[in-house]
Amino acid sequence: MKPKISDWNVIPYAEAWKRQTEWFDALVQAKQAGVGYVNHIVLCEHPHVYTLGRSGKDGNMLLSDEQLHRIGATLYHIDRGGDITYHGQGQLVCYPILNLEDYSLGLKEYVHLLEEAVIGVCASYGITAGRLEKATGVWLEGDTPRARKICAIGVRSSHFVTM
Length: 163
Fold this sequence. Notes:
Layout: E1 4-10, H1 13-33, E2 40-45, E3 49-52, H2 65-71, E4 74-77, E5 84-87, E6 93-97, H3 107-124, E7 129-132, E8 135-140, E9 148-151, E10 157-158, E11 161-162
Parallel strand pairs: 1-2, 3-4
Antiparallel strand pairs: 2-6, 3-5, 7-8, 8-9, 10-11
């Protein structure tokens, strides 16, 4: 089943989260009811925002509320995996809302394929990127003390539907 691709351009994080959640909930409900549904891939950018995932700790956020306010950034606690992730204008964000069973994928394989796609895009720009053992995402200079993340991946899944 080919997903519908939507470009939301620059959108505040709260609005994007609300719209994603609506599509995610609708897909899960339709799947459970055995009725038709649409898989989605959303592309967008956000104004300055930090997200703190389920496995993150508030102490990992190095900016105070006052500092966030001063730079015009917000912080959202979300129910995806991961720790702290920054999003800002100029940074492309992709939100797949997919029924993994349509693609015969499990969650671990799905995340691996997302990483592989980003590694391939980096390579097309002449950038060497890869994985780090026991770390989700895509990294530059991964086997060195200078390792830095070029792509964060946080996935929420229910009934094999991703968000």
